[in-house]
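Fold Annotation — chain and its backbone

Fields — amino acid sequence, C-alpha cells

___
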Amino acid sequence: MAITYNPQTKQFHLRADKTSYIMRLFHSGYLAHVYWGKAVRDCQAARGFPRLNRAFSANPVPSDRTFSLDTLPQEYPAYGNSDFRAPAYQVQLENGSTVTDLRYKTHHIYKGKPRLNGLPATYVEHEHEAETLEIVLEDGLIGLRVTLQYTVYEKWNVITRAVRFENNGNERLKLLRALSMSIDFPDADYDWIHLPGAWARERWVERCPLLTGVQAAESRRGASSHQQNPFIALVRKNTDEHQGEVYGFSLVYSGHFLAQIEVDQFQTARVSMGINPFDFTWLLEPGESFQTPEVVMVYSDQGLNGMSQTYHELYRTRLARGTFRDRVRPILINNWEATYFHFNEEKLVNIAKTAAELGIELFVLDDGWFGERDDDRRSLGDWVVNRRKLPHGLDGLAKQVNELGLQFGLWIEPEMVSPNSELYRKHPDWVLHVPNRPRSEGRNQLVLDYSRQDVCDYIIETISNVLASAPIAYAKWDMNRHMTEIGSAALPPERQRETAHRYILGLYRVMDEITSRFPYILFESCSGGGGRFDPGILYYMPQTWTSDNTDAISRLKIQYGTSLVYPISAMGAHVSAVPNHQVKRMTPLKTRGHVAMSGNFGYELDITKLTEKEKETIKEQVAFYKDVRHLVQFGTFYRLLSPFAGNEAAWMFVSADRSEALVAYFRVLAEANAPLSYLRLKGLDPNQDYEVEGLGVYGGDELMYAGVALPYRLGDFISMMWRLKAVQR
C-alpha cells in the first residue's frame, strides 16, 4: 500500500491491496481521473487522453480548442465553465452567480485516517492500516477552498472519499450541491445494480444496462428509506457472482441521498454520490466549513461475491464499533407479533418462561409499555412506564426475566411523538413543521426536530433515564415514518433547507451519546424494519432489523439483496407464526428456522401456544444455532443461487481457516418430475476432505467443482442445511 505523487508527471497513484486509483493534473491545475481497477505499476503513456476539437464543447482556454472540461474525465467537476454534465458541487455567490473554478493548490499524504466531524465513517485501529491523501483545490476569486479526502486501506480493495468545503473569503457562500464523490469512467459498457424496494420488500436486486442520459437511485424521504438504499454498483456485462469486474459505491449516510450515473454523448459514464441536492442548501459564512459524508468505493475482479466480502469485512470490523462488534449475538424472543399492544406482565413472563425452557437467551419487550400506549394513536414521546400493564415497572419485569436466565431487552422510538401525548402538548414546536401549514401524520405520529440542540439534549437525558432504570441488555431503536413539512422553528429563513441534514447530524449526536453511555447494551436499529438499513446507522448500532416482513420466502430475496453490501452480523432475522402476518403464507417451521438462522437468529411469535412437537423443534433449532452462529455471524459469506433468478436460493458461510462451513439451500415451489440437480459450493480448501453432515465425506474440490447432489424431495417451501467439517482420511 502506498500513495505517491510524481511531480514530473503531476500524477497521484493510490494503491490499496490489489487495486490502483490514478489521477493527474492538467492545464493549470485541473484534476483529472486516469484509472481505477486492478493494480498496475504505473499508468503513463498507455492512458493518455486524445486531444480532440469536439464541436459544441466549449473551451476554458480560448487558445486551445482541443481542451474542454466537457470531455476531460474529472475528479470533482463544476458546472458553468465548459462542462455540461452533472456537477459534483455548486456554489451560489452573493451576486447570484453559480460559476466557480477550482484549481489545484496543494496536497498532503499521511498515515492513518482522520475522523469526519460529526459524521460516521470507516476507521482504523492503527495508523499503518491506511494512508490518506488530501488534495486542496481553490477558487482564489471567492476564497473557496475544497479539500478532496481519499483514504486507501492496506488490507482491502477499498478507497474512501469525502469532501470538505471552507469559506476563506469575505462574502457568504451558499452550497447548492455538495456531493461526496464523482468519477468519470472512460466508457459506458456496464450494467448498473441498485437495491430498490418498499416497506416489507426491501433491497431487491435490480440490474439494468446503462443507457444514454441520467439514471439514479435516490431518497427524498429524510431517511435512506425502504424504497432505495445508498448503494450502487457498475458491473461489466459478463460479470456474475463469482467472476468479472465490479465497482461498488456505498454512502455512509442515513438521510436524503443521490446516487447518479450519467452517460454522455461520447459514451463515457459519470458516477456521483452524496447528499441529495434536492431541497438542500447550506449557508457558509466567512470562516465556516462543511463536511460531506463518506463514500466507500470497492473494486473487485472476482465478481459480486468478491465485492460483498470486502464490504462485509470492512463494515463488520472497521465501521461497526463497540462491545458487540466481535461478539456472537444472543438468540432472542420478541413479543411484538405474539401480543402486539395487548399484554400484561403475566403474559410477558409466561412467554419468557417458555423461552427459557427452549434455550432462548434474550427476551425483548416491544411497543406498548409506556404512557397510555394501547394502540399506535397515542403516547409516543411519553417515556414513562404504564403501571397498569407493568405494575412492577421495567425493573421488576426485567428482574423476573433475569431470574429465568434470560437477558432483558426493550423497544424505543426516540425520534417521534404522538400528537396525542403530553410531550407534544407541552412542546408543539419541537416537531418538523412549516408556518401556517397542516402537519401531516404518519402512523399517527410526527417527527421530532433533531436539528434543534434542545430537543436532542432532552432525548439524550430522557432515553438515558429509561435505559438506566432497569438491567437492560438490548435496545431496539425504531423510526416509523419519513419526513414531511421539513422545517424548523429554530432556524432562520435562509437556513430552512439545511433542516434535513441538520436532523441527521443531530441524530448521529444523540446515537453517539446514548450508545457511549451504555456500552454494555446491544443496540439494534429499525425503521419499520429495513427503512434505514445503511452504513451510517451501522456505525452506531451493529445490527438492524432487516424487514418487518418475517415471511421466510419473502426473506430469501430481502436477505440476499441486503447481503450485497451489509455483513450477516448486521441482519436481524426471526421465525414468526403461520399463517404469516404480512403475506398469510404457510411455511414449515424447519424452513422458517433455516432462513432466520442465516442472520442474527430469533423468534417473534407466541411460543406459549405451540405444540410440544413444535417446541421440541425450536429447542433443536436454538441448540444448533448456538453451535454454528460463529460461522453465520463472522464467517465468509458466499451467495450460491439467486432467488431473483429462479425457483431456488442457496448460500453458505465458511470459517476463516476453511475448516468448517454451513450451507443453506431453499426451493420455493415443487415441480412435478423435476430433474436432479447439484449445488456447487464455494470457498472450501480443494485439498481438504469434509464431512457433510448426513451425506458423507467428500473432497473440497469435488464439492466445489462437481457439486453436492440435492436430495429429491416433494413439497413447496423446502429447505436444507448442512454443516461441513474438515476431516483427515
User: Anything to note?
Assistant: The first helix runs from residue 303 to 318. DSSP finds twelve helices and 38 strands in the chain. The mean pLDDT is 95.
